[in-house]
Amino acid sequence: KRMEIDTAYANTVKFVWKTILSGDFPPPDRDGTISGFSELAKKFIEKGGNLIYVRCPSSGMFKDVESHGFPREQFWDVLVEKSGAKGYNYHDYEQFQNLFLPEWSHLAVKDAQFFTRELIRIMKSDGVISNSKTN
Predict the structure, then answer these.
(1) Domain that holds residue 64
(2) Are 17 and 104 in contact (CB under 8 A)?
(3) 3-class DSSP state for residue 81?
(4) Does residue 32 belong to any structural domain of this protein?
(5) Is residue 31 part of a domain?
(6) How many Å separate Cα 15 from the centre of its chain?
(7) What is the Cα–Cα distance from 29 to 38, expressed in whole angstroms?
(8) Is residue 30 part of a domain?
(9) Terminal Cα distance for the chain, rounded
(10) Neighbours of 75 (CB within 10 A)
(11) Residue 72 lies in a domain
């Protein structure tokens, strides 16, 4: 909650993100990363696991770096398809488009609560999760 009311603190975190994200990095190993995750996902699913990928919101420079460094159609979409898991990407839902991320990578408390409740509602509606408790 401090991040929401203390803009100096939020700006300090943004400065750290800028420092980290402004480096000159080699392109990610797309095929190796997707292959590795997909193999692990398939094993998990084969053992009865219910794997669900969630692409949470981001904003500002953080979102820009993610979008350029890891274009959705080259990473997220391929990973979800190859792994056989269900995937939820915030870009696909109108209600998730204007949420507040004080330092670009974490939702404000009120929006985090909304995002969580709404995502659970969507997943239940899709039959991906249920109300039953297993432990």
Answers:
(1) 2-21+51-126
(2) yes
(3) helix
(4) no
(5) no
(6) 21
(7) 14
(8) no
(9) 31
(10) 17
(11) yes
